[in-house]
Give the backbone structure.
Amino acid sequence: MDGSVRVRNAALGAVLAGLLSTGAAVAQSNEIRIEPGAPIVVGGYWVLSGGDAALGNDQKRGVELAIKDLGGEILGHPIRFLAEDSQCSAEGGQTAATKLAANPAIVAVLGPSCSSEATAAAPILWKSGLVSIGTSATSPSLTAADRKPDYDGFLRVVFSDADQGPADAKWVFDQLKAKNIVTIHDGSPYTQQLTSEMAKTFTGLGGKVASQEAVAPTDVDMRPVLAKIASEKPDAVYVPIFVPATAQILKQAKQTQGLESVPFIGGGGIMTPDIMDAAGAAVIGFYGAFPDVTPEAQGQDYPRLLQAYQDEYGEAPTSGFVANAYDAMTMLKLALEKAAKQEPDGALVIDKAALRDALFAVQFNGMSGPVACDTHGQCSNFKPAIYRYENADRASFAIGTNPKKIYP
């Protein structure tokens, strides 16, 4: 062992000693012991900065509201919530997960926003015994029947794109009457798998996918790819990517001959007022394929959550996943009540494997609707809807009115 290793181990020992002296939770092999009065520490990771920050901040707020409704405690212990910025990237997810996994007090992790984050982070977290509850990472592979054991500790309270892609294809074919389309992804697991599922169903319905294009999330000049798309004379363009690249595509499509009036359909990454700021007037008429998050399609208490959000933050939710994040925290609370063991001195002992099993067994009616997991961690169903941006005024953003729900 070299000197740098000895220094790191000494530093880790000092950290553990400090945690023990303050009565905080400390992991002991596969168990976490939380001393009387010490907090239950919950980790989280979402995109909290950059062009897609509204997506992650909204989910972080959903967890905060759930904690507030719990009175700030579980089983008589205060809740301490630690959130990391994972930037909607694999690199960000890896960094956030490594930091969270190194904290011996954390009992479980909520999030993330993006599938690229989850794909990189979930195995790191589970290697340390930490289960993670996805709140808007929808890539089919994350909860597929053939997923690798590295993902056994991941489950999600949000739908799978294995359901959204076919639903979007049916709307584009049946309702929009498009027969020749182009898809665009950004190389992320989410967008690649979603466009693939959509294209497969669309061709099965009798439509033609002229091409499946790719851009980078950081691309600014979209003119070459748009010129190629225009030459294929599509009836519609399916582009379920994120805000910065989508905004460039929408603005430059208006200046591309042959695409001025072609409908563009985005996905969940653009259901945020940030797209209105980024795209300006080019957002008008832009479609969003997204689950039905109008109050009548959500859980019975969803209107109360909307009001609580408005009261707490002074605005409506800035994405459609606040209910899912709230449900993730509720799910963790219910599982902890089943898995944690109370010691005679008031301490809690949490077996990590037992907590994972309890999470998979939890069933309840959440803010987003019924929550119940299959054996691969899929705990929510998809309720299809289509929305359309009516104007570019950020102050008018409210999912259901602007963007306006037009289907069903």
